[in-house]
Structure formats: C-alpha cells, structure tokens
Amino acid sequence: MSPQRAVLVTGASRGxxxxxxxxxxxxxxxxxxxxxxLPGSGAMAKTGVTFVQMxxxxxxxxxxxxAQLADVPLDLMINNAGVMGDAEAGPLQAEPSAWEAAFRxxxxxxxxxxRAFQPNLSAAPMPVAATMGSQAGIFRxxxxxxxxxxxxxxxxxxxxxxxxxxxxxxxxxxxxxLRPGPTRTDMLKGGGQYEIDDSVARLRRVxxxxxxxxxxxxxxxDGSTFPYDAP
Length: 231
What we know:
- With 231 residues, the chain is α/β, with parallel strands linked by helices.
- The protein contains 6 helices and 7 strands, in the order βαβαβαβαβαβαβ.
- It has helices at residues 15-26, 41-47, 59-68, 96-122, 148-168, 196-208, and strands spanning 6-10, 30-35, 50-53, 76-79, 128-132, 175-179, 218-220.
- It is globular.
C-alpha cells in the first residue's frame, strides 16, 4: 500500500479552499485545513479534515503553524487564501487598509507560507506547490478601474509564483499559479460561471499532472497554459 499523501490548504474555511479539503479527504489524503479561526470539533469529525490555525496575514501565526506540522511531509501545498476587497473601488476610492490587507494576504502570504513549509515539501518524494491566480491580474484584461487592489495584488502574486518557481527548482519543488475561472464563491457574491466543486475537481486533475518542466506557469482549469500576458 502506498503511503498516505498529505496536503495543506490555506483559506480553507469556505469556498474553493473548503472544497479542496473535502475532495482530497474523500480520496484518502491527510488534509490540513489552515483557517484563521478554528471551527468546532464537530466540524472536524464531520469532514475528516485536520484543521490548523493560521492567519496568513500574521507571520507569527504562520511560524506557529509550521512548528506544529514540522514533522509532516507535504506532497501538496495550495496557497488559496485571498481577499477581494471592495470590488467596485478604483485606485482613487480604495482605502489604504484595503490595499494593505490585499497585499498581505494575496502577495506576501504565499511567499511566507511557502518559506515556512519548504522543509515539509522537501521531505515529500514528489511535492507540488501552487498559488491561486486570477485572470484579473493579467495586464491586458485590466480595462477599467474596478477591483484595483485585487487586480494589482493578483498581478504581483503571479510575479511571486515565478520567483518561487526559480528558487524552488533546485530543490525539486515545482510551483505554479492556478486559474479556477469565475467560480460561484462568496468572493464573487454568488456570481461567476462555474460551480465550486467542478472548479476544484478540474484543478485537482491539473495539480496531479504538474511536472518540474511546468514550474512557474499559470495553468488553466483545463490544464492548458494561460499566458501571463494573454491578449
């Protein structure tokens, strides 16, 4: 029997993160669901998932969680946590606090979480790590002022993916960005084209096929490469 695989998912309390946890647990993975606030023990028993407390906006919280899981090899890590902020706000309207929160969670957190859990990834035989990217961060798709903080930080998150991919390559850890497409999550207030479980099932298939040669790419929900400079 092959050893049980392990996955860490940030932003796991709802939406795509929660669906990743449910689906991987259903397939027998050891699932660590990182949430800012821990749910009750009943939720843990019901899902078969191990919840761990981690506020990705707080470096000390990230460090505590990494210490808690220090002996766990991670086959997969998904930096899923993200914030939209005020979807209608342009650069002249967005509050400084919204910009700061978006940069802490959408840009800095993937770098800090990956740094903290790099030893766990290195301890697995064929690890993969990913950031949840977005078409909103592609420059040529920025055609109006709305979602200014989200778009800017997703563009920066893509840049962090490329940097992480370069730094992790000698360690044998491919790092990619994922495009779920417009999915009906709370972030989009129920809007979107795709259902959550379908998007996650498709992204899981993509993650299962990631190779070192794909490190740094922005992978679409169908497994194709979505150019960072797409027209």
